[in-house]
């Protein structure tokens, strides 16, 4: 190639780079962003989701980030430090609970919890009907009875004659009928379980009536009226800073185990497939509009960050270096130099 062609290539490269450096200036960049976003937003109306990307690629991306990507140790540590900062923030003293949760939202939530057939009703019934719960209550009652009898034995100890007689009777039973005590305890336990089961059935009948709900709802709303006036710092009486840190660690450990389950994988795949079944033939513009993303929002957010990024790239020389590196390959390619050489 001739030196003349290379000189022209250098001049064109400099002119091209300077052109784009001027285009990146904040006053010019806003006009470019507006022009290009208008064009792209219009083009999105004719491109469907299925044409833009496949469900398989979206599933693979979701798997990489939700199931495979390792979470660095700095992330939970950072979350813990931010949680501690929030825990000690002065705003905790100036902000009331009602400033975060309005009374309207709180009342609607409480009423939903106490309505007939609600999750609360179902949870109470399931607990009442479970055998482990009946066994637990029987253990509690039997333990209380044992404690009561023990106290009575201590009282009897104050009467030497009666106390000595009871001790001899117990020694005789332990020697002649060693399993008697265990049998009595087992029989007592079974009797308590049946009795508790009958008592819980009465509670089931009570759940079908509205009186307990009205009383419980009124009591809960009165409790909310009191709690709503508390400053947020009052809630720290129920948890310490150390508790908060431990909860963060437990949450992190739970996520590490949960992300390895087949359940999460199946849920992700089902969610992606459902989204594509519903929106696959719709245009990208319609989809983002239904998600609440408007043209004005897109343009505003791009302009909000692009001007600062462009200014930084210009001031630090990053923009010129990148432009020259990419454009130089074109201007000094064999084809371009041949064209420039033919015009000499």
Produce a short descriptive summary.
This protein has 344 residues and is an all-alpha fold.
Describe the fold and architecture.
This protein has 344 residues and is mainly alpha-helical. It folds into two domains: 165 residues, no CATH class; 143 residues, no CATH class. The chain has 19 helices and no strands. Helix 1 packs antiparallel against helix 18. The chain is elongated, with a radius of gyration of 37 Å. The model has no long low-confidence stretch (mean pLDDT 80).
Which features does this protein show?
81% helix; 344 residues; mainly alpha; 0% strand
Low confidence ranges: none
Assembly level: single chain
Q: Mean pLDDT score, rounded?
A: 80
- Rounded to the nearest angstrom, the distance between the terminal CA atoms is 11 Å
Number of strands: 0
Give the topology string: H per helix, E per strand.
HHHHHHHHHHHHHHHHHHH
Radius of gyration: 37 Å
Tally of individual domains = 2
Share in helix: over 70%
Q: How many distinct helices? A: 19
